[in-house]
């Protein structure tokens, strides 16, 4: 009777009891800890989806917000929305439960992770370049940074991310499930070469560009701020309008600078650890590092809410359903 009870208990701990030796074991957590963990992670995921959806609706709906900078923010919001909608729930399911969706879906999930993350990083690089031109070369901004060019760059960015993702997960796409050690798990193991290429292309290279551009922006912004203060007593109406425009550009640069700092804080732990251990996903810290990585997508819209008055106004119009009224897209949201 005792042996039967022990055998039954062991079967309950297996993802696929019928497979016995080749089945993975379930994650054993006390029910209270499991409920708390899943509740917190699900709340973060839902918040990420809702907040970024508000940004997508705001910029897409109101014509006054159809600027080059906001279109870039829209691209970033779309990637953050997909992180909350697909990647966060997938990681919760992958790390806290048995994987019952099969090897093909696991390979597709790995592809989406790389595609969405690479698209997000590309969008942040484009945002940095946009602010660099706006602050450092304001006279050429209108001619160099047009809406058509920005949309083209965004399309190329996501297309490039798609091709890069195929390279990154090529082995998993060719042979789904090749990395798993037992039935009931979804793992992704990469070679040393692939891990090194990812570290360079998805972290070192974009971070170097971002830091270089924002150092230039910071230097020019400080000099402009000093110039504005020194001439504040002798301005005409025309000059005051120009000064207000400059202040707006400087504020946008400051806000997006905070965006970059938060991005680095969330991405650095994962990629720093990948220097020590190429296959981060195979370590015990994997889920924690990945969720810190993904948490950036939840923080971005909170930064917009704190520093962009138009976003707070847009939220009020969306929540009160005023966006459904005729002509609401022409509202002076600014």
Can you give a write-up of this model?
One of its GO terms (molecular function) is trace-amine receptor activity. It comes from Poecilia formosa. It is a multi-pass membrane protein. This is Trace amine-associated receptor 13c-like. Belongs to the G-protein coupled receptor 1 family. This protein has 334 residues and is mainly alpha-helical. It has a single domain, classed as Up-down Bundle (Rhopdopsin 7-helix transmembrane proteins). It is built from 11 helices and no strands. The protein has helices at 2-12, 31-61, 68-96, 102-136, 138-144, 147-168, 170-174, 192-230, 237-276, 286-307, 309-319. Helix 4 (102-136) runs parallel beside helix 8. The radius of gyration is 24 Å and the shape is globular.
Task: Supply the key terms.
single chain; Rhopdopsin 7-helix transmembrane proteins; 334 residues; disordered N terminus; mainly alpha
CATH topology: Rhopdopsin 7-helix transmembrane proteins
Q: End-to-end distance, in Å?
A: 74 Å
| Average residue pLDDT | 81
How many DSSP helices? 11
The number of domains: 1
Provide the low-confidence segments as ranges.
Answer: 1-11
Which architecture name does CATH use? Up-down Bundle
- Which percent range fits the helix content? over 70%
In the CATH scheme, the class would be Mainly Alpha
Based on CA atoms alone, the radius of gyration comes out at 24 Å
**Biggest sheet features:** none
Name the CATH homologous superfamily: Rhodopsin 7-helix transmembrane proteins
The dominant shape is globular
Structural class: mainly alpha
Question: Quaternary arrangement of the chains shown?
Answer: single chain
Secondary-structure element sequence? HHHHHHHHHHH
């Amino acid at each position: 009777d005792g042996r039967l009870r022990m055998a039954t208990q062991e079967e309950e701990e297996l993802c696929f009891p019928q497979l016995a030796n080749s089945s993975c074991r379930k994650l054993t957590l006390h029910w209270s800890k499991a409920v708390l963990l899943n509740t917190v992670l699900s709340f973060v995921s839902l918040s990420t989806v809702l907040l970024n959806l508000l940004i997508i609706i705001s910029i897409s709906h109101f014509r006054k917000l159809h600027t080059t900078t906001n279109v870039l923010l829209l691209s970033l919001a779309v990637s953050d929305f997909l992180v909350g909608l697909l990647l966060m729930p997938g990681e919760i399911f992958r790390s806290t439960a048995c994987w019952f969706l099969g090897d093909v879906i696991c390979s597709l999930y790995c592809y989406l992770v790389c595609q969405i993350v690479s698209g997000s990083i590309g969008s942040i690089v484009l945002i940095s370049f946009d602010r660099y031109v706006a602050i450092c070369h304001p006279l050429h901004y209108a001619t160099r940074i047009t809406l058509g060019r920005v949309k083209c760059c965004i399309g190329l960015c996501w297309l490039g991310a798609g091709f890069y993702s195929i390279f990154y997960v090529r082995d998993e796409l060719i042979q789904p499930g090749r990395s798993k050690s037992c039935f009931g798990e979804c793992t992704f193991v990469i070679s040393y070469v692939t891990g090194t290429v990812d570290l360079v292309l998805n972290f070192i290279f974009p971070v170097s560009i971002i830091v270089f551009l924002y150092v230039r922006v910071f230097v020019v912004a400080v000099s402009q701020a000093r110039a504005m203060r020194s001439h504040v007593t002798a301005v005409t109406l025309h000059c005051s309008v120009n000064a207000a425009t400059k202040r707006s550009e400087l504020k946008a640069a400051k806000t997006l600078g905070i965006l970059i700092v938060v991005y680095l804080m969330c991405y650095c732990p994962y990629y720093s650890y990948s220097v020590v251990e190429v296959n981060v996903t195979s370590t015990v810290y994997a889920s924690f590092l990945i969720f810190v990585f993904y948490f950036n997508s939840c923080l971005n819209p909170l930064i917009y809410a704190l520093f962009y008055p138009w976003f707070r106004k847009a939220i009020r119009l969306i929540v009160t359903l005023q966006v459904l009224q005729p002509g609401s897209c022409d509202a002076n949201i600014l």
